[in-house]
Amino acid sequence: MKEIIKADKLNIEDNKICCEISCSRGLKKYFSDSFYAKYDRDIENVNRSILQIPAISNIITVAWVTGADVYVKELDKAYLESLDKVKRVMKGMYPEFPFSGNIYVDKIVSNSISGQNQGSMLLFTGGIDSTTSYIRHKNEKPTLVTIWGADIPLSKKDFWNKAKKEILRFADKEGVEANFIETNIFSFMNMNLLSLEYGRYLTTLDWWESVQHGIGLLGLCAPLATVERIGTVYIASSLTHDFHYPLGLDLTTGNNISWANVKVSQDGYELTRQEKIRYAIKNYIRDTGNYPFIRVCNKKKDDKLNCSDCEKCYRAIT
């Protein structure tokens, strides 16, 4: 019997999207009952076909690897078409998976953001990659977007508040806007089980890193980019051209993902990590006399943004 996933009910209240998910018995182990994403901007008037994107972007990959069909009431036409592109890329990365499922949409909507400017938006953690991408595009004054519930767990509230404060300080110093999204993506999806069951086919054995994080994070940006009338959304590359194995961020290469008339660009793919430090961050320090905010730590201690004692910190220091 064919497995199915339904994005049944979409509710918006206090700038929080809640999407209830129902699925066939064999897939229930991968999801909790509902997904949410909360924004710090008014999203009440965003078309529902775009408001549906955050949930679909964090459902569709499970459907592809299990061969399930996805049913949704409304979806943006450009995003629906981009899913076909992403599916082809992922199929090339992981040919062991069936990719036999389809997505069925009751109402396909062609959106065009009126009055859209040439502004840009950047997914920003304060790490080496996203900081470099900011420096490369600082003349555009990109809006910085940081997501709570991705690399910083919802349980780490004190750490989140500290990181948020530093990002706001950096944004204020640079004269750019900063937006924040809260999501239950890691409790909504059973990443550990997905990694356990499908890890042997994945590059890093980790579902989030090998499959989900590119498409999942970008989908969260769709309502916010619409409200802010953004033309381009940047996501920093963590890989370079000299790495020859697939990761989830590869799904975003070649402008595969889009919605309405918004384009997504993976940034910095041509630079090694050492080049990012040497040419971008070093030049920024030389030109401005300031050190950029950098947060690379994996330990996420509430009292420190960087412990200077874990592998990730050692690597950045070196």
Structural notes for this entry:
There is one protein chain. By secondary structure, the chain is α/β, with parallel strands linked by helices. It is built from 11 helices and 11 strands. It has an 11-stranded mixed sheet with strand order 5-4-1-2-3-8-7-6-9-11-10, with helices on both faces. The N and C termini lie far apart (54 Å). The model has no long low-confidence stretch (mean pLDDT 89).
Radius of gyration: 19 Å
Query: Beta-strand level of the residues, as a percent range?
Result: 15-25%
Mean pLDDT: 89
Estimate the helix proportion, in percent. 25-40%
**What's the β-strand tally?**
11
Structural class: alpha/beta
Terminal CA distance reads 54 Å
What can be said about the biggest beta sheet? 11 strands, mixed
Question: How large is the count of helical segments?
Answer: 11
- Low-confidence spans: none
Q: What's the order of the H and E elements? A: EEEHHHEHEEHEHEHHHEEEHH
Q: Describe the global form.
A: globular
Q: Enumerate the strands of the largest sheet in spatial order, edge to edge or round the barrel.
A: 5-4-1-2-3-8-7-6-9-11-10
Question: Key terms for this structure?
Answer:
single chain, 318 residues, eleven-stranded mixed beta sheet, 11 helices, 36% helix, globular
